[in-house]
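Translate sequence into structure tokens.
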Amino acid sequence: MTDLRIRYFAGAAQAAGTHETTVAVADGQTLASLCDTLAAGNERLEKVLAVSSFVIDGVVTKDRNALVSKAATLDILPPFAGG
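Result follows.
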């Protein structure tokens, strides 16, 4: 198990109720399984995570099979609106 720093932005932070947290991740854990864990019991966050992009240690991905077990930081970026 390693600690993963998770930073939530915009609507993701509102849905999560925080801007940042740290969670323990198991060896071989994927982004998909982490999202399931994060969204457990929080339907609003589940919806946001379903449409979000992710930055794992500075690398942008939408690949839900990406491993997070060796990462230090995960940024969660929901779609942004603006002009």
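Note: The first helix runs from residue 11 to 16.
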